[in-house]
Amino acid sequence: MIPSLGYAVLLIIGSFVLNLVVSKIRFNRKYKFPNVVPGWPIIGNMLDVPYPAGMWGVDMAKKYGEMFTLNIGGRRLVYLNSSRVVTELLEKRAAIYSSRPYRPMMSEIMSGGARIVLMGYTDKWRNQRKIMHSILNGKQSEKKFDDELLNFILGYTGTLGEYQFNPLKSPADVFTWLSRLPKPLQWWRPFGEKFCETHVAMFQKEYNILLDKMNKGIAKPCFAVDVLHGAAKKEFEISDVEKIYTWTSLIEAGSDTTRVAVLQMIAGAACYPGWARKARDLIDEVCGQNAERLPNLADRSRLPYISAVVKETLRWRPFLQSGVPHTLTQDDEYEGYKFPAGTEFSWNAYSIALNDKEYSDPLRFEPERFMNDDLKLPAKGHCRRICVGLNVGANNIWIAAACILYCFDIEQDPEHPIDQFNTLWEEPTKPPFKVRFTPRSQAHIDLIEREGNIALATDY
Ligand code: HEM
């Protein structure tokens, strides 16, 4: 009896292993990935990807060429290392290359399944995109955005970033089968649930205040009001939790990106002052040399160089250093490779930005490289599942860059040189680098104070 039970168990294990081997052989015959990087059994290359991954990505691209493939705990992740392959796959074939990887911890537990940046191509995603698009790409994109939630949101974007880009931080997002363990065994779950609860409570509080103002007819025009009006339309029937995530996702995705971009521009001005002097001379021609007025968005057509500054700011040291993974939704072939549905793709942002075949003298901050026909397309070359807030983002950087360059001298502090390769500025309350920031003249100080007082007295 016992021996036959033993044989039966052996048989089951044997057929399981055989099945695995046969499936693997079939998979390998059917599909072909570019430059597969050797890894460990089961975990694959999970321990190979550092955080942040920018310079690692540069070295890997030098070693493996235009594309290479990692195995992250069984998931295939293909890095695209030239703008040629990024354009061919993520842009021209965007219809099938734009979903998102399944992330049970980040997307479901930490975000209640309602945070757009983590969603696959679903109806939920489409609804939120439509609402956001209608708000951000109309006249609103030229208005000011402000909000009490900002500090709260800036305080946790670093945590989201780490979960997004560091495979070691979130095992359940790498080995997604772990999410099928009984809940008490999911050691990561309490943190995720607490994270989500705290956020929903905070968002809900702000949401109720806003609803109350809207009901009393005293809500000032702002994008949060537009989100709620948009979400109230019949064609966008979404839950209350989704409504508040739609609204707060805009602040989340739009604030820290803009903060880091403006810092990046300041670092670029301190390290390569030549372009900043040129920009200021051009602004002087439009706004006057004696602090007559601050530049504004209506000056854009007369200041194309500042638009080139915005593009160069986003190129110089991309702060989403190794891109944001996209998921392929159906099998596809490209230049002899065969990718199964579910393969993940990321654009290797650092390696593209710092490659001298893509940009001459790429380490320099040089807005001149963008003084061409693409100038009016701020996202070209920088965003893929196209950033829904790119017009707002580009306008915000534009106005910040123009005003800062007009009013301040920016210099490196020789005692504290700026680390140009560190763009992981996750603590918004701490200065990320030292720089000498001097008002240009008393007239400029007066102008800043006048404008500052008007801004402070404005009730949003
Ligand atoms: C410097 C400014 C900005 C940069 C560099 C930037 C960059 C990006 C990138 C790289 C993505 C991911 C694209 C992809 O997956 O292929 C993204 C998505 C997104 N961005 Fe931006 N962004 C900026 C400003 C903004 C602003 C101001 C807003 C809103 C007001 C915004 C809202 C969003 C949203 C909601 C998504 C998610 C879209 C989706 O997953 O469908 N962004 N952004």
Automatic annotation (TrEMBL):
Pfam families: p450. It comes from the Eukaryota. Its cofactor is heme. Gene3D superfamilies: Cytochrome P450 (1.10.630.10). One of its GO terms (molecular function) is iron ion binding. Keywords: Heme, Iron, Membrane, Metal-binding, Oxidoreductase, Transmembrane, Transmembrane helix. The chain crosses the membrane at residues 6-22. InterPro entries: Cyt_P450, Cyt_P450_E_grp-I, Cyt_P450_sf, Cytochrome_P450_fung. Heme binds at residue 387. Belongs to the cytochrome P450 family. This is Cytochrome P450. It comes from Oidiodendron maius (strain Zn).
